[in-house]
Amino acid sequence: MEVEGTSPDRILVVEDETNVAEVMRARMESFGYEVCDIVSSGKKALSAMERCHPDIVIMDIKIKGDMDGIECAGRIRAKFDVPIIYLTSFTDEKLLQRAQATEPFGYIIKPYEAKQLHIALKMALYQHRQDRDRRKLVADLKDDLEKVKKLSGFLPICSCCKKIRNATGYWEQVEAYIKKNSEAEFTHGICPECAQKLYPEVFKNSKT
After folding, report:
1. Is 204 helix (H, G, I), strand (E, B) or coil?
2. Are residues 125 and 165 both part of a single domain?
3. How far apart are CA 76 and CA 72, in angstroms?
4. Among the four 12, 30, 125, 154, which has the fewest Cβ within 10 Å?
5. pLDDT for residue 1 is more than 60
6. What is the spatial order of strands in the sheet that 10-14 belongs to?
7. Do 32 and 90 share a domain, yes or no?
8. At which residues is 4-aspartylphosphate found (predicted)?
9. What is the CATH number of the domain that holds 119?
10. How does 30-46 read in b/e, with b if 16+ C-beta sit within 10 Å?
11. Which residues contact 101 (CB under 8 A, 6 or more apart)?
12. Structure confidence by residue, pLDDT tens digits, 37-94
């Protein structure tokens, strides 16, 4: 659905009945969606996925071609991160089990109310985006953990110059190494021992 300042969500309709698909297009466009394509077979649906990059797919189970809508949905889910809603007249238990295996975001029985489909689309798009954000958060956390792990264990450090040997065999300053392999930031100061070496006159005067 279109929100002010954003482009409308794009829908791919996979439906072998042209009149049904065109009615669906008109209804969805009235709710602010963009129907980027209408196709009647699984083969055309897979091609349309590459071509028009929809945000969501409405899939009938009985479609033209060698594969039915469930097989087509499975192939789409395996290759594209896009939610699918089944819109069909089939309620057979075996078909439902097959459809469930493709992890759809909805299953609507024909005949349907336009508002019902609109709500299903909104919920599916919201849920999918929440899932995607959670997956990204988990991936980011894993990356951060990997960065922390890089600094665990034994670090080869020179006893004289205090440089650290990195994974490629080069020796780096401690500051550069830690900055490259962690999220740590440095603040610079002078410790008391170094301060005495650098400014002996100050410390000498303070003792008198």
Report:
1. helix
2. no
3. 6
4. 154
5. no
6. 34-39, 10-14, 56-59, 84-88, 106-109
7. yes
8. 60
9. 3.40.50.2300
10. ebebbbbbbbbbbebbb
11. 74
12. 999 999 999 999 999 999 999 999 999 999 999 999 999 999 999 999 999 998 889 9
Residue 10: both structure tokens together? 């794009």
Q: What is the pLDDT of residue 180?
A: 75
Is the pTM here over 0.85, yes or no? no
> Of 23, 92, 93, 91, which is closest to residue 58 (Cα–Cα)?
23
Which of these three, 134, 162, 179, is where a domain ends?
A: 134
Residue 56 phi, psi dihedral angles, 5° rounding: -160, 155
How is residue 34 written in tokens? 């963009």
What digits encode the pLDDT tens for the residues 140-190? 877 766 766 565 666 777 877 778 777 777 788 877 777 777 667 777 777
- Domain range for residue 188? 144-208
Distance CA 34, CA 45 (A): 16
Domain boundary among 114, 134, 154: 134
> Based on the structure, what is the number of domains in the chain?
2
Residue with tokens 């080869």: 156
Report which residue type is found at 134. R
Smallest CA-to-CA distance from 45 within 28, 19, 23, 21 is with 21
**More confidently predicted of 19 and 138:** 19
